[in-house]
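Changelog excerpt

This revision adds worked examples to the README so contributors can see how folded entries look when concatenated. The first example is reproduced verbatim below.
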Amino acid sequence: MCEAIDKLASANGLKRSAMVEELLVLALGQQETELASTFLMPRLEGILTGLFDRHLRDLRLVMVHAALESSIASRLTLFKYKEDNGYDVHQLSSLRDQAYKAATRNLGRKGVRDADLQDE
């Protein structure tokens, strides 16, 4: 099939991709719109799903790095607060727990459930 497309492309002075596009336009022009969408839409959906999956996998790595940096920053802030205010370990833990509860309540108001916050 590629050889046939390449022959047509070179005979018409086009690149392969341009020839494929021309052939698709020609073929679709002869089809009913509904028939064309019947075989093209599932293929298009598959291509888009693959692209979104790949993009979201890339975002996962960014999200992991952001969570790690955030965790480090919050720990450093807590230890700095402990040193500046003379807190002991129990007071520091209590402060961290209060901050966690406040953040959880805030997320709850935005529709995040407790089960979504639990480690699996």
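The second example, added in the same revision:
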Amino acid sequence: MLRIIGAGMLAVTVLAACGYNRDVDKYQGMTNRQDVEDMGANHKITSQTENPRMIDNVGYTWGLKQDRNMMKEAAEEVKGVSVKRVIIESGTAWVTVSAGKNLSDNEVQQVRKEVQKKVYNAVPRYDIHVKVND
């Protein structure tokens, strides 16, 4: 019985020692803690991240300014409409447009619906409210 236990412990020790390698950093795909902490960093000295979704690096692809410009361009596609103001607050956008003078109530409603549809198609993530001024 003692021989079996001794042989088992010897086998476990030998097998565990064979799997251990001190040169772990030389293998491809191996990362250490410092590599994980430095992922996405430009320089190890500054540690500034390259994440484009950070609020201070919005760039030209997304952001409130770009959304306002897209809303303005979409609203101005409607004939006879000029945009006076675009306000964005959280998930709501208020677009104020001028559509000319002497419009009937039906024409105002039609212009409002057209502008709302165009703006929503351009930037669908907002709840769009349109105000038509004379």
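Reviewer comment on example two: The beta strands are 82-89, 92-98, 127-133. The mean pLDDT is 78.
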